[in-house]
Design a protein that fits this description.
Elements: E1 3-5, E2 12-14, E3 16-19, H1 28-40, E4 45-48, H2 53-63, E5 71-76, E6 78-79, E7 86-87, H3 91-104, E8 109-114, H4 120-127, H5 130-140, E9 144-151, H6 154-161, E10 168-172, H7 175-179, H8 186-192, H9 204-215, E11 219-223, H10 245-253, E12 258-263, H11 268-275, H12 282-285, H13 288-291, H14 295-298, H15 317-329, H16 336-343, H17 357-361, H18 368-379
Helix pairs in contact: 1-2, 1-11, 6-9, 15-16, 15-18
Length: 383
């Protein structure tokens, strides 16, 4: 297992986490076996968005004395009024459900998530009401360790981050969502299927969100990594062929600021399959070929795929490009953390010998030699 720091929360989370959604309604023995498999394979972050009492209690029971070994992502405003999953901003209702999850998980939730902020209306109902005061109260009183939120809309996520309140974000990330114009409501595409005609390279709003998260140290956990299963399905994939689970995980983990991918495993076998990601070599995780079927949409822009490796000078080209993209966002105010990450690389842009091998291999026509020089100019020691 690998671990990454979840932005400014400082928590070290496993890069593969467990989204417990698909355990809902399953027999207790299956829940217990799946949770055991997750912990035995060193997964240490669990998403529990489900409002149902039984599933929450079954997860807590399966964890038992190991509760303190895991980070629980619990959601504020997730309810199941009239047996239906729902979003509530009605404070008495919100409190009732959140107090229930607190009681079940030992009086403390590590990541208190403001649930589902996708629209202007959601934003108003959270930030212009007592909802936000309740969230701040939970943090102040130590009932939650950190404030986070979930969203599927990059423009709204940017707005929430700019309030300065949240420390992390649960966001839906996969190559198909990243290529949809940000005005599209992605839940419609999950239901009806993707329309590749709409794809136009990485949507600028999403790229802006990833860069903002890196700048402000907002750690991202990821949902919908497989696009509701559509990206790995030969019938529903919007690309020339389906992606593999490993390619989807690798894509999400390659986005700036991403710390963990929450996978909706529902059996021990599915956990083991997901964990196999760490045994695969780079070619088995490489997603460039599939995105490359749409290469005109990406031309000149690095998608951090690593297809250009190996570099004889030992440069991790995708990582240098990632820091460069963040530095370009506002080159007059480059975050010190980005410069120090760049300077701590074993090999940086200044090591480039301009052999050009990488540029021949890059399916997206990225001017790598030029980028290495620019990275050194903006981020190198002589700044
Ligand atoms: S430079 Fe090209 S091949 Fe290398 S990581 Fe970026 S997009 Fe992929
Ligand atoms: S051109 Fe520079 S970055 Fe590319 S492979 Fe050669 S040394 Fe590495």
């Amino acid at each position: 297992m690998e671990y990454r720091e979840l932005g400014k929360t400082g928590l070290k989370v496993s890069t593969i986490g467990l989204g417990c959604e698909h355990l809902d309604g399953k027999p207790y023995t299956q829940i217990e076996e799946t949770i055991n498999a997750a912990l035995e394979n060193n997964i240490n972050i669990l998403d529990v968005f489900m409002p149902g009492k039984e599933i929450r209690e079954n997860i807590a029971k399966a964890l038992g004395a190991r509760r303190n070994k895991v980070i629980i992502q619990g959601h504020i405003g997730s309810t199941d009024i009239r047996q239906q999953y729902d979003i509530s901003r009605d404070l008495p209702t919100v409190r009732r459900y959140f107090e229930d999850i607190l009681r079940i998980f030992g009086g403390f939730i590590d990541l208190g998530m403001m649930f589902f902020i996708d629209s202007e209306e959601d934003y108003k109902n959270v930030f212009e009401t007592d909802f936000v005061k309740y969230v701040e109260h939970l943090k102040k009183q130590g009932y939650i360790g950190h404030i986070g939120f979930s969203s599927h809309n990059p423009a709204m996520a940017i707005k929430v981050i700019n309030t300065g309140l949240p420390e992390m974000l649960l966001f839906s990330i996969n190559p198909a969502f990243d290529m949809l114009p940000s005005e599209e409501y992605i839940m419609d595409h999950l239901e009806k299927g993707f329309d590749p005609e709409l794809f136009r390279g990485i949507d600028p709003k999403r790229a802006e969100l990833y860069k903002l998260c890196t700048q402000k140290q907002i750690g991202i956990t990821v949902m919908k990594t497989l696009g509701g299963g559509k990206l790995i399905s030969p019938k529903h994939t919007p690309f020339a062929k389906p992606l593999t689970v490993a390619q989807c995980i690798h894509y999400a983990l390659s986005r700036p600021a991403v710390a963990s991918v929450m996978l909706g495993c529902q059996t021990p076998g599915e956990i083991l399959k997901a964990i196999r990601y760490f045994e695969l070599d780079a070619s088995e995780k490489d997603y460039a070929e599939i995105l490359g079927t749409m290469r005109n949409d990406f031309i000149g822009n690095c998608v951090y795929c690593g297809h250009c490796q190996p570099c004889p000078a030992g440069i991790d080209i995708a990582t240098v490009n990632k820091y460069l993209d963040i530095a370009r966002l506002d080159s007059a105010h480059i975050p010190p953390s980005i410069r120090s990450h760049y300077l701590s690389l074993a090999h940086s842009g200044s090591d480039c010998i301009e052999c050009g091998n990488c540029e021949k291999r890059c399916p997206f026509g990225v001017p790598i030699i030029k980028n290495m020089a620019e990275a050194e100019r903006l981020l190198g020691k002589n700044n």
